[in-house]
Write a structure and sequence with these properties.
It is built from 14 helices and 18 strands. The chain is an alpha/beta fold and 463 residues long. Strands 1, 2, 8, 9, 10, 11, 17 and 18 form an eight-stranded mixed beta sheet that branches.
Amino acid sequence: MSHVEAGLAGARPVPVWWEGHDVGAVTEPLTGDRTADLVVVGAGLTGLWAAITALESDPGRTVVLLEAAHVASGASGRNGGFVSESLTHGLAHGHAMWPDELATLQRLGRENVQEIDDFVAAEKIDADLRLCGKTTMATRGHEVEALRSMHELHQRHGERSVLLSGEQARADVRSPTYLAGLRTHSGGLVDPLALTTGLRDAAVRRGAVLHEETPVVDLQRAGNRVLCRTPRGSVRADQVVLATNAFPPLLRRIRAFVLPVWDHVLATEPLTSTQLESIGWSDRQGLTDAGNQFHYYRRTADDRIVWGGYDAIYYFGNDTSAGRGQREASYRLLAEQFYATFPQLDEVSMTHRWAGVIDTTSRFTPVFGTAHGGRVAYAVGYTGLGVASSRFGARIALDLLGGLDTERTDLSMVRRRPVPFPPEPVRWAAVQTTRAALARQDISGRRGGLLRTMDRFGVGFNS
């Protein structure tokens, strides 16, 4: 058995956040027929924020949450817990896509995270939310200059950042792979399961009615209402918010804009005091690589390391079937890269391995819209940064349902849709070709003709 195989041998196929928790449905499935003012389809972060926001604006409203599995079963309970202020998938991408609105987008993103922090504190949600920022690490020579350019961009746009030399980066977090670092102080980290279940409880306290294990199988107009059919019942609603992430959409139009990508994650056993001392990392901030294919990693409250990313996989036909989550090659690759990054932890074992589906769009930011005469609104496509921006997206969906002209709905990213993905089999081929081009840039530092052409058409691979 190889060193990597030995490290993975005891890893259980379940998110580390679920460790020690009785994760599953806590409410009964919907049976029979009923009516509601608002139905929210999907009880992940977007759906829960939508229910909470709707009830705070109108406490007398009847709000029904319909969840296909259980709260936190999808991406909301499987992600790395990175809380980003960015609504644009990074400052560089926002600068490339929406330069005239960037200052507004930055302010709205900062306000969004601060309001999340205030809400978590007021509701006493014990989610280990820490606004500690993150460090992006350069591990290839050409990435050092890329970090310098990113630092200059931060300075021009009023974002606090500190450019670290290789020596300074390695003194902060001890990895021989680091050549430079960019320390930023916005955003932070959270326990995503605790946040999601805390929001669930907050929504129910406000009067939301939650039905888990209740997939919506059909959505159709019914006079001046919308009928949501489930296996054992239905709800007729005045309005509907679709918060279905990367899973098969109830509106055909969403399928053209959202691509489901499988993201893989490992978690180590809790580190000993000696092991912790060997890596430093005393600020416990989030860490990422500087490449297109990048790792994200962090320490947990019980001193594990969560290590994910890099090997994002798209399956033909938008396949999101559960069996796709255990791709052995992806876990082996992640483990190899972990031990190369932290060779001093070569005796540390992985205790958890899991995957989740990321809902990505061609511009790496969500797509918003309405259907059924404005009675249905959707907010999907967060591309891995939905822990915080899902709240912002939920508010946009409610604004659209209300026909409100707000600062949020006036944004170009709301008014204009991303470039659609082509149908299969061209879709699969385009993803593989683009993925290969991004990998070549990571190695060479040169942006090839394909990626430059995509940039000109507003297809988002700038961050």
